Amino acid sequence: MKIANQRIAITGAAGGIGAALCHRFADAGARLLLVGRNPVALAELTLALKQTAPESCVASLVLDITEPEAPARLRDEAQARLGGLDILVNNAALPCFGALSDMPLDEIERLVATNLTAPMRLTRAVLPDLLALKQGGIVNIGSTFGAIGFPWFAAYSATKFGLRGFSEALRRELAGQGVDVLYAAPRATRTAINDDRVTAMRAATGMTFDDPDFVAKRIVTAMKRGAAECAIGGPERFFARLNGLLPRLIDLSLAAQTRAMAPFATSSQSTTET
Questions:
Q1: What pLDDT, in 10s, does the model give residues 22-53?
Q2: Where are the domains of the chain?
């Protein structure tokens, strides 16, 4: 995928990885439509982009991507503000850390709607235009937990497994038609999506945290290379492959970590959109 002069819409734009991607896109000369639910955060990001990349073209759209009219609104706003769309980055997501038995049903439904259903619906809305142009792409931001079902992240892992499967199937479906599909799988990243419980748990278990700009750089590089997947973290990539071949071995290796995570997972739960 090209970046320079491309019209890019990115959901969850004001979050950690989203904002870092926006800065890299703007610096590369892309024209941006920032999508998110927080008008103040979007305004602050727009101002920051204008300061670091004065020549950049930046528009914003306050939008709840789970609403029924969201796909049509995003497509229409991209047409009105940018003259169309070349790349859609499905970045917005909700986290969920804790015991599945303690999760309210409405939180599970909101998680699936945001992390999986919305990216599919938004992609469906813009895909005819991309196919007509015979160029551009879809970038889906997933997670290492989309390849390794992680304890205390059952619902979240399910949505990311689904997004990875969607990306893989769509990439094969669109082969030879000029539209690329990239699935990016960051590991733990220092963003506001992680509440105090998750931060404390990852410190106690020794999980690696990446800086959002490091993650964004890797994703942009993968986009430029036309890669199908971008999995971040050598040990995580190895574990993902091993999980596909010998899942019982991963069960055993995670048993102690599961017990160490339990005190953090069984405290009060919360979800925050990125």
A1: 999 999 999 999 999 999 999 999 999 999 98
A2: 7-265
For residue 103, give the H/E element and its range: none
Distance between CA 118 and CA 112 in Å, rounded? 8
Those residues of the chain that have pLDDT short of 50 are 238, 269-273
Q: Give the DSSP letter string of 233-273.
A: -HHHHHHHHHHHH-HHHHHHHHHHHHHHHHHHHTS------
| Long-range contacts (CB closer than 8 Å, 24 or more residues apart) made by 158-164 | 158/112, 159/93, 159/111, 159/112, 159/115, 159/116, 160/115, 160/185, 162/115, 162/116, 163/90, 163/115, 163/116, 163/119, 164/140
Q: Look at residue 188 in the predicted model and tell me its pLDDT.
A: 78
Question: Given the structure tokens 């890669």, which residue do they identify?
Answer: 227
Helices 118-133 and 70-82 cross at an angle (nearest 10°) of 40
User: What's the predicted TM-score (pTM) here?
Assistant: 0.85
Asked if 183 is an active-site residue, the reply is no
Active-site residue (options: 150, 156, 161, 166): 156
Fold of 7-265: Rossmann fold (3.40.50)
Q: What tokens does 144 get?
A: 């290492």
Tokens read off for 211:
């800086």
Q: Is residue 54 classed exposed, middle or buried when 0-12, 13-18 and 19+ CB atoms within 10 A define those classes?
A: exposed
Place of tokens 């036309």: 226
- Region for 136 from its dihedrals, namely left if φ exceeds 0, alpha if ψ lies in -120 to 50, beta otherwise: left
Q: Which amino acid is at 29?
A: G
d(CA 5, CA 30): 5
Nearest to 216 by CA among 191, 179, 241: 191
